[in-house]
Amino acid sequence: MNAKALMKETNVPEAALPDVPGGLMYEENLLWEKERSDHPGIDFEKPRGLKFRTGQPARGDIGLPQVSEPQVVRHFVRLSTWNYSIDHGFFPLGSCTMKHNPRLNEKVARLPGFAAIHPLQPESTVQGALGLMHELQTILGELSGLPGVCLAPAAGAHGELAGIMTIRRALEAKGQGHRKIMLVPDSAHGTNPATAAMCGYTLRVISTKETGRMTVKDFKVALGDGAGIAGMMVTNPNTCGLFETDILEISDLLHKAGGYFYGDGANFNALVGKARPGDLGVDVMHINLHKTFSTPHGGGGPGSGPICVTEELAPYMPVPVVEKQGNAYRLAYEDSRPETLGRLKGFHGQFGMHVRALAYILSHGADGLKQVAEDAVLSANYILAQLKNDYHVPFAGPCMHECLLTDKIQKEAGVTTLDVAKTLCEYGIHPMTVYFPLVVPGAMLIEPTETESKDSIDRFISVMKQIAADVRAGDVQKFHSFPKDTPRQRLDEVTAAREPRLRWKKT
Ligand SMILES: *Cc1c(COP(=O)(O)O)cnc(C)c1O
């Protein structure tokens, strides 16, 4: 029972019980709304009869809420419990690879030798840390088949920026700076076209509507005579969860036309240890350490998106890069890498993520990483096989690490993808990615990852089957009012987006 329902039952006026629990689920007001003028908290009364002798301006009221320390602590702790995370439960958000973050990584990252060093320390005192970064560079180079590695970018999107700037730099160095067209499939993650546009490229879309994949035919249509083509940005497996089967022929045609192949590595979880993007013709890729290599997903904190490039492109990529000379490691900057595009980030990237990713890689080993990809693909195909008779499957399987369904069948009864997602919230399961990729109407993109137990996947499947069965039985009205048992129910999403309330004003 939620707080409001409880209040109604006990007939308590709402104002009298600002913190009333309902099944231990608290309504959480802003701290300012909790304050009561007769309870001084932070601001002391103004001192009387005091003269400033140092000439400093008198301090005014800074308006902090007048609440006690326990109120502040409880406020933030309660808010923190509202933050659904992979440590709470199943989180099948397609394209995001929400997998378990092993605690071993956390333990290693907290070792004082890693956690208590400072980026301005002399290199001679942080040789171990630089050695760790060098090892991570080497391993990512090996796994991607692209030996030039820069760990600096702080997220996948930042890696894309680094990678496309590397391509732009290389084209300019070759006197090909006039090439200004970037090819992007219509199913691309939004960061791809955004990155290309930010780097001054015009987009040309490769259609994949028919099969969910790029075909040589559709690629040739986009390529035209090849004039002005700077490159192509593609994720493989793509955002429909499908392997791009024509990729070798396509990358060959692209290279012949003088373009570079940017491989969006966000879906590397499906390939790691099994196939090397460099062997598929990729010239540059980013790797989301917070996806494939299980470092925590930002959430406002640090992500990490190293880039891996071919030997040819390595001189142009950002600095710093850790280099080994004899037995010593050093950070190489512009002085020794004159063709670099420069620095994109303060210091040398999110070092704590480098530690976690290397801990993850070494604890799995080569065979373990391969099994990661195999099990991720197995989990997604298991879901696809279980749900394919209940939901519409736009592109026939098998899929890679994520599976794609739509609401086509349910929509006839008035139940949409949004309703399915909200119903999952009611059942305590985080929804899948909805309405993405944009080219598939009513898309539901489900990525279970290899770290989920069969039990938790089965629970998800049974809830999804129940929803489909209720829709078939005509029991549909309830779906429009879910979720009921969450602190917030259906939001007015249009008003929230158009007229967001971002400031609080004292009334
Ligand atoms: C997650 C993702 C990105 C962006 O990565 P961030 O680390 O979130 O910036 C880019 N492309 C694809 C396909 C993704 O799934």
CATH homologous superfamily of the largest domain, by name? Type I PLP-dependent aspartate aminotransferase-like (Major domain)
Radius of gyration: 26 Å
Q: What proportion of the residues is helical, as a percent range?
A: 25-40%
What gross morphology would you assign?
globular
Return the structural class.
alpha/beta
CATH topology tier name of the largest domain: Aspartate Aminotransferase, domain 2
CATH class of the largest domain: Alpha Beta
The number of distinct structural domains comes to 2
Bound molecules: pyridoxal-5'-phosphate
Written as H for each helix and E for each strand, in order along the chain, the element string is HEEHHHHHEHEHEHEHEEEEEHEHHEEHH
Strand order in space, largest sheet: 3-9-8-7-6-4-5
CATH architecture of the largest domain: 3-Layer(aba) Sandwich
Low-confidence stretches: 1-10, 12-22
Quote the average pLDDT.
Answer: 91
Main sheet characteristics: 7 strands, mixed
Tally the beta strands: 14
How far apart, in Å, are the first and last alpha carbons? 31 Å
Describe the structure concisely.
By secondary structure, this protein is an alpha/beta fold.
Please tell me about this protein's structure.
With 507 residues, the chain is of the alpha/beta class. The chain has two domains: 104-363, Aspartate Aminotransferase, domain 2; 367-494, Aspartate Aminotransferase, domain 1 (Alpha-Beta Complex), CATH 3.90.1150.10. 34% of the residues lie in helices and 11% in strands. Strand 13 and strand 14 form a beta hairpin. Helix 4 runs antiparallel to helix 11 and helix 7 (156-173) packs across helix 8. Residues 1-10 and 12-22 have low confidence and may be disordered. The chain binds pyridoxal-5'-phosphate. The site of pyridoxal-5'-phosphate has 15 residues, from helix 7.
